[in-house]
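Hi everyone, sorry if this is the wrong subforum. Our group has a chain we'd like a structural model of before ordering constructs, and none of us has done structure prediction before. Sequence below.
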Amino acid sequence: MTPSAQRNLINFFKYDYKQPTDKEPVAISTETGVCPWNPSHLLFSIGIKTRELLKKELPAANFVFLIDVSGSMYGPTRLDLVKSSLNMLVENLRPADKVAIVVYAGSAGVVLPSTSGKNKKKIKTASENLEAGGSTAGGEGILLAYKIAKENFIKSGNNRIILCTDGDFNVGPSSEKQLEMLIEEQRKSGVFLSVLGYSMGNYKDNRMQILAQKGNGNHAYIDDISEAKRVLVNETGTLYTVAKDVKLQVEFNPAKVQAYRLIGYETRLLDDKDFNDDTKDTGEMGAGHTVTALYEIIPAGIDSAFEIIRPEEKTDPATRTYSDELLTVKLRYKLPDKEESKQTSIPVIFNINNQPDENFRFASSVAMFAQLLRNSGFIGNTTYDDVIKPAKSAMGEDKDGFRKEFIQLVEKAKGLTNSGKPLLYGNIHIDEDLFEYFDEDSDNNTFYGIKDKKGNIIIQPVYDDIEYINGGVFLVRKNDKYGLYHYSSGEITPVIYDDIEELNDLTFLVEKDDKKGMIDHTGQLIIPLEYDDIDYKYIIAEKDNEKSIFDRNGKSANPNEMTQ
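Answer:
Right subforum, don't worry. Here is the predicted structure as tokens:
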């Protein structure tokens, strides 16, 4: 499990933090207790909560759904799930709300002009008629979406593009940097961008996060209908930004803190100078949104072999005087229509007799589980039982049932082993009696590989990511290039492709230098890597504006055999 996945797991759950007071949109809650996986250490939690708004208090919405209808979106967990998601949101629209639908694949087009929320049937009909097919090229898609959003702009409203994609996309200019610059420029108009990623496979979490951040919006991953309901119905207020460029800075007292580590946000660390820099773009928070961060702290005077950040590396004691505080939390944010930030600070004093609340106990249980999945060296002999017990004591009201489902998930993971220790880590799904997933750190980088139960290395830890596909075949990524690997026969293809996508029966669509082809599970080309586009619902390969038709085995097919 990567730091990003670990962070997302902790923040998947809602926590009952205090509401903001007065007119401020954001409030901070802190809690400190004994670290559950290492009693000689402390665990510190920060909870940020934005002001909740009732449905009737939310400003009128001007939504433009920008939907990827390329071939990779075909299927029940992709485009079909997008349709179901949109239909659920439609049921909660008010007459003052507006929805438009723009699609992109080989080209972009308007499926539904901006339509009042009272015309629910019209919106649903447009959604239901969407079909997937074609490539993911569609440079004008993002521009068209912004054009429609600005033409239907609602003053003091929630003007927002909602991009729905599996992450395998090109919605704008040819380079990623150009696309980011475009989104940054367009947000000045008051139209923000949120990103919803659908299904497993090629979904690129970091890419979605960056685009949403540049667009002053949020991003979420949706893999089933219950998650769609959570994002677009139960927590729809999070689609309305109440604070942007939200930053946290924690300053530790070196007289009381020997060292610390941030759990789950390792890849989201800011340089100290960026905290006070109002030009530095960071994350946004919507109405009723909560964010949780955890720090493991080694108190002064405690022996530890862990090589983690020490306070003196981040703070110059000569420039700061301390009293009895353990640390100080600083929060900086901007109002959505402002470019100058506000700051607040809270000193934290630890009392050894403090009894942590439910938020703390449940979040720490989730963090333990995430670290078990990562095979983290920080958690010692922690077992699944150590996760389950405090989680059960911190169930709270659990209105949506997610905490109960979490406990069931941990109990299921425990049932896979006799010892209660994990045999599987990350997203590898093969015979748990034979293989385990592991990571290895080098120069603060994490690399992934596979080893068997006896510790024999099956795949060396040299890859940035590994995803199990089927039949012993893994998709591996290194330096943003992709390849295929078989656990017994070794490398199937070199790691040279810009993208690889499984179609079916271990057949893969591959892309390199803007040309596409198809390979089988042995790495053999069944369609040459020379086509501009491949429609794999049948298989249509296009070259120099001429099309060739193939069957699933790569043999030339008769056009008359095709059905509409």
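For your construct planning: Confidence is low (pLDDT under 50) at residues 418-434. The radius of gyration is 25 Å.
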